[in-house]
Design a protein that fits this description.
Rossmann fold, alpha/beta, 9 helices, five-stranded parallel β-sheet, 5 strands
């Protein structure tokens, strides 16, 4: 049976976001990246920039998040902002998954949906030079600034994931499929994911 939900974690500058968009388009699945951030901001009644900061590990440690997870009826408005964002993110992502087939980029989606059997978790990586080039071209940065940006975001993203999911970011055993966007171009990588979905892996 084809997987209904695809989560995509990725190294910064690897092309994972673009690959996810191609997969969603070709399969006719809903695509959640910026739309996910906007939904979390709307439901949590917070600024979009705060959601972005949280997703990149820039909000600091959650005060007591694991004591709140799973507490039905908890008044999350009374919690510290990082806790509220975490629980709102969890609520939104689980709600999105319940609505039907979709591709979700980042934001701990694989962790929040770990109890579901209809999820395919993907990790996209790429060679360093390719990432530097992509980030530079996309953001109008020189090589030095691209390198600095990649290192900063990689560090924050891994820290955020490892703190809350309690798994090693990028470790192959945490995912159903890991793809090099240097070995394969974006279209080929997307096709590999689609074939995995159709095989029901």
């Amino acid at each position: 049976m084809p997987k209904q939900i695809i989560t995509v974690n990725r190294q910064y500058g690897s092309g994972g976001r673009e690959i996810g968009a191609l997969v969603a388009k070709q399969l006719g699945y809903d695509y959640y990246d910026k739309k996910l951030i906007q939904e979390i901001a709307h439901v949590g009644d917070v600024d979009v920039d705060l959601v972005n900061a949280s997703g990149e590990g820039l909000m600091g440690k959650l005060s007591n998040v694991f004591s709140h997870v799973g507490m039905e009826g908890k008044d999350i408005d009374s919690l510290p902002l990082p806790d509220r964002l975490f629980l709102t993110q969890r609520k939104v992502i689980r709600g999105i998954a319940d609505q039907g087939p979709c591709v979700i980029i980042g934001h701990l989606a694989d962790y929040f949906l770990s109890d579901r059997s209809d999820v395919l978790n993907v990790f996209v990586y790429a060679q360093w030079a390719a990432r530097v080039k992509r980030v530079g071209e996309r953001n109008g940065l020189n090589e030095a600034d691209s390198i600095h940006r990649i290192k900063r975001i990689d560090k924050n993203r891994a820290s955020f994931y490892e703190q809350y999911a309690e798994m090693k970011f990028g470790r192959a055993t945490n995912y159903d499929l890991s793809i090099s966007a240097s070995t394969f171009d974006l279209e080929q990588a997307a096709q590999l994911i689609i074939e995995a979905v159709q095989l029901g892996l």
